[in-house]
Amino acid sequence: MQTETTGPDSNRGSKSIRTARNSSFLKIRNLWPALGIFVILGLTALQLHHQGRLWSCSCRGFLWTSDAWGSRTSQTFLDPYSFTHILHGLMFCGLLALLIRGMEAKWRLLMAIAIESAWELIENTNTVIERYRQTTAALGYHGDTVVNSLGDIMCCGIGFLIARKLGWRRSIVVFVATELLLLIWIRDSLLLDIIMLIHPVSGIKAWQIGH
Q1: Around Cβ 109, how many Cβ atoms within 10 Å?
Q2: Is the residue at 17 inside a domain?
């Protein structure tokens, strides 16, 4: 008759099994934020298309345009305004770190992506599109393509990761430098965009149109 082994080898075997199970569980748990981001991106893309946004533009070279005032801006994957979405990421990283200090960075990144995706949905409603057309120099603006919105969300994520790497002091320097670069390059910036959307200034609009 066989007897059950309860010696040191058996205990080590049980511990190894438990360790392997715990390791597998942790690996799966670490994937949840990434899976959450993919779900958010997919749902955002579907909702944007449901709101009437085109999947992508039919223009050549749909990956990038450097003409901030041309018809391809907000239609290609990336454009000069993509830099403002990097600044979104810088801000979200700092604000979420202050407001939710105990949360892991990967979950804060998920929250930043969710906030940015929500903004893309709001920005591409007919009400906000018309607001842009009335108050800013974007007179021919008809909303973003889905591809462009996904590019904006990606840039927000990149900005978040940059801020995580640099820390808040150097992130502020990057923020200010980017704002100045955009003002010189396209006569617009994140802060100007917010000002013109909330409380339009005719002098700023005239200066931008005179590009």
Answers
A1: 23
A2: no
